Amino acid sequence: MSEVETPETDDRLAADTDLVRNYLDKAICPPQMSEAETARYISLIKELLKSKNARLVAHYYTDSVLQDLAEETGGFVGDSLEMARFGRDCDGETLVVAGVRFMGESAKILSPQKKVLMPTIEATCSLDIACPIDKFSAFCDQHPDRTVVVYANTSAAVKARSDWVVTSSIALDVVEHLMEQGEKVLWAPDRHLGSYIQKVTGADMLLWDAACIVHEEFKARGLKDMLQMYPDAAILAHPESPDAVLEIADHIGSTTQIINAARDLPNKDIIVATDQGIFHKLQQVAPDKNFIVAPTAGNDATCRSCANCPWMGMNTLENLYHSLKTDSNEIEVDAELAKKAMIPLQRMLDFAAELQIKVKGKA
Questions:
Q1: pLDDT of 295-354, one tens digit each?
Q2: Quick one: which of 97, 153, 177, 181 has the fewest CB in 10 Å?
Q3: How distant is the alpha carbon of residue 77 from its chain centre?
Q4: Shortest CA distance to 282 belongs to which of 263, 265, 266, 269?
Q5: Which of 226, 184, 229 is nearest to 202 (CA)?
Q6: Phi-psi region of 202 (alpha: psi -120 to 50; beta: other; left: phi over 0)
Q7: Terminal-to-terminal C-alpha distance of the chain
Q8: Left (φ > 0), alpha (ψ -120 to 50) or beta: where does 203 sit?
Q9: What mean pLDDT do residues 109-128 have?
Q10: Do 320 and 30 touch, CB atoms closer than 8 A?
Q11: How far is 237 from 257, CA to CA, in rounded Å?
Q12: Distance of CA 97 to CAs 58, 294, 326, Å?
């Protein structure tokens, strides 16, 4: 097993830098709507979605109201890979992406003929922020012998600089495939996910140094303490979590893989180390189980320590309605850049499709 390296830089853009904090200052939790206001906005949005032949595509980490609205109106709720597939294949002329900016960019790259709107374009991701194209491109240039694999949580420009784009649901399979081809990998941006993949596969990987502000807060010590309270509980963790957390997890996987595991495992108590937004779908697929938020380093009263992505929380019914009504917050990606980014994105989708065929063939 080869040694994992990290880029040496004095001004590394990790998840706890001032740059990320500056973005966090914009991510203020919106006030709660009354039931009457919620019902009114839902009704108005449904009318607009229908009249504009638009589809609402929402991530599992967004508010439960948005998730329900997407499914009720012929849209979709899923992880970033599933969102990309749906957006590409659905018959809607307009896609409204409730998530963070890289998801909107990916939707536009894969569906250039469609209008792509977002409730807010301020919603971003600490991983995207921490991997700026200029520094990342220079890092790639220093290691021309490596195949560049980037996580979906990156800008269109970073994707365009890569050979492969992956999501957490397919990253292991892609790296195993590359390893079988004798290729060395340059991985970005999440160091925890990259380290996990390297340990499982034994691949030769050079890691960029960044982390998700939500998943990095989960602590193994707190999980062990929680197991004293729930001794029969299973721990489900997203691979963006720190290594110490993954070592004691019973199942490690993407959001969709966590949902499937929660449904299939016999345990009644399940501790979940990922964004709390997923609990809505977990409770739908396994209503008889007790889902428990994994402990973080901070207090539950603050958005930075309560297992909630503050940027996902910026997606609201109010700004969704405004975006649809006025066609505002439209995502545009430079045509040449989109053409370059499309190559690794399409490579991921083709690989995922082939993988599904293989899995079905073995079943």
A1: 886 544 343 446 889 999 999 999 999 999 999 999 999 999 999 999 999 999 999 999
A2: 181
A3: 12
A4: 263
A5: 184
A6: left
A7: 32
A8: beta
A9: 95
A10: no
A11: 10
A12: 6, 28, 15
Q: How far apart are CA 235 and CA 273, in angstroms?
A: 7
Global model pTM greater than 0.70:
yes
Residue 210 near residue 190 (C-beta atoms within 8 A): yes
Long-range contacts of 300-304 (CB under 8 A, 24+ apart): 303/27, 303/29, 304/24, 304/213, 304/217
d(CA 60, CA 291) in angstroms, rounded, equals: 15
288-306 pLDDT, tens digit each: 999 999 988 654 434 344 6
**Cα 136 vs. chain centroid, distance in angstroms?**
20
Number of other residues whose CB lies within 10 A of the CB of residue 326: 10
Say if residue 101 is exposed, middle or buried (CB neighbours under 10 Å; 0-12, 13-18, 19+).
buried
* DSSP-assigned beta bridge partners for residue 94: 54, 115
In the chain, what are the domains?
23-125+312-335 (3.40.50.10800), 215-305 (3.40.50.10800)
b/e 257-290 (16+ beta carbons within 10 angstroms → b): bbbebbeeeebebbbbbbbbbbbbbbeeebeebe
What's the CA angle centered on 246, arms 240 and 248, to 5 degrees?
A: 155
Q: How far, in Å, CA of 45 to CA of 320, rounded?
A: 8
160: nearest Cα among 100, 79, 105: 105
Q: How far apart are CA 142 and CA 338, in angstroms?
A: 24
- Token readout for 322 is 């405004």
Phi first, then psi, for residue 19 (nearest 5°) are: -60, -45
Strands 94-98 and 54-59: parallel
Residue with tokens 């929680």: 226
Looking at the chain, list the stretches that DSSP marks H as alpha helix, in order from N- to C-terminal side. 18-24, 35-51, 64-72, 80-89, 101-110, 126-129, 133-141, 156-160, 171-180, 191-201, 220-229, 243-247, 255-264, 279-285, 317-326, 335-362
